[in-house]
Amino acid sequence: MSETGLGVTTGAVARRLGVSPTTVRSWEQRYGIGPQVREGGRHRRWTPGDIAMLEEMCRLTSSGIPPAEAARAALAVRGRLAADGRAGSPPPPVPEEGVGPPPDGPGRSRQGGPGGPGGGLPLGEVRQECRGLARAAVRLDGPAMEALLRQTMEAHGLVVAWEEVMVPTLHAVGRKWESTDDRYVEVEHLLSWYVSTVLRRAAVGDLGMAAHAAPVVLACLPGEQHTLPLEALAAGLAERGVPTRMFGAAVPAEALRAAVARSGPRAVVLWSQSRSTADGVLARQVASTAFGLKGARTTPLVLLAGPGWSVRAAVGGMRRPRGLREALDAICALYPDARAEVVSSAR
């Protein structure tokens, strides 16, 4: 739709902000976040002041602020612009929390709607950052997702960010597209990309120990494409100063055996998402790979990670951690000096 002297249409402003027109209309109906000008009394036209208000609404909800609270702050932005003479008349009064259409009325679904707590995703009781990430994901707002993920990791550390923000949001997106005939697939792909981007940046570099310490080898088994849990583990090990070698998705069996033999790792983490990729024979071959001087040869600790492994799969020289924290604890116990070297390197 085209712009006019009175402003831009709802569809145009929605495209500019990366949200759906339905989201913009629901914000107006529920929180009074509407345009000051209506062409012919009916058609919405958004002025620069209105758009600044919506941009602030998007920014605040992406950071996890509840929509009603974000609306009050966003309306204040337009009010300041109006006072400066850069927008139209003063903003309309802000409705109180809960005032607006009934719960199942226009602009709101039973899961919260596009502007609701989780952008329409089935989140349940989660952290505020998780709700902000979900809203940004549904809007396909990549920069907001990346900023929120980085802030969460800096504020709470890798483990909390992964277990309490990234994983719940990824699972909610997965449940959503499974129940809506493959809708939201684009949301899952974009969210996964930004989660991976932030984790890989955190995992760059072997802090302090790379020159002399044997690394940890991280690899997905042949046929296994799910790498995000291994990327989270790599980021957590980097945070603790443990050197890693990430080989990524679907590593061929022979290449995996060669990587272990050549790098001489203290530990090898083999990820399997499903029973079809869990290869116990290959795991035992990796666990029996010896390296070092004759008479003092060693073998790596093998961690069978992921839901594809059975409880009984871990036998001699192998362990099956139940989550990220347990895997980090098991590996870091092999590197008692890692944290001290991280501190020394930082100094």
The level 1 CATH classification of the largest domain is Alpha Beta
CATH domain fold name of the largest domain: Rossmann fold
Summarize the main sheet. 5 strands, parallel
State the strand order across the main sheet: 4-3-5-6-7
Q: Helix/strand-derived class?
A: alpha/beta
Number of strands: 7
| Unreliably modeled segments | 87-118, 342-347
Determine Rg (CA atoms, Å): 25 Å
Mean pLDDT: 78
What is the H/E string? HHEEHHHHHHEHEHEHEEHH
Helix content: 40-55%
Can you tell me the number of structural domains? 3
CATH architecture descriptor name of the largest domain: 3-Layer(aba) Sandwich
Estimate the strand proportion. Answer: 5-15%
Based on Cα principal axes, name the global outline: elongated
Question: Quick one: CATH superfamily of the largest domain?
Answer: Cobalamin-binding domain
Q: How far apart are the termini?
A: 57 Å
List the total number of helices. 13
Explain this structure to me?
This protein is α/β, with parallel strands linked by helices. It has 3 domains: about 1-100, Orthogonal Bundle (Multidrug-efflux Transporter Regulator, Chain: A, Domain 2); about 130-205, Methyltransferase, Methionine Synthase (B12-binding Domains), Chain A, domain 1 (Orthogonal Bundle), CATH 1.10.1240; about 205-345, Cobalamin-binding domain (Rossmann fold, 3-Layer(aba) Sandwich), CATH 3.40.50. Helices cover about 50% and strands about 5% of the residues. The protein has helices at about 10-15, 20-30, 50-60, 65-85, 130-140, 140-155, 160-180, 185-205, 230-240, 255-265, 280-285, 325-330, 340-345, and strands at about 35-40, 45, 215-220, 245, 265-270, 300-305, 320. Strands 4-3-5-6-7 form a 5-stranded parallel beta sheet, with helices on both faces. Helix 11 (about 280-285) links the parallel strand 5 (about 265-270) and strand 6 (about 300-305). Helix 5 (about 130-140) crosses helix 7 and helix 7 (about 160-180) packs antiparallel against helix 8 (about 185-205). It is elongated, with a radius of gyration of 25 Å. It starts with 9 loop residues before the first helix and ends with a helix. The model is unreliable at about 85-120 and about 340-345 (pLDDT under 50).
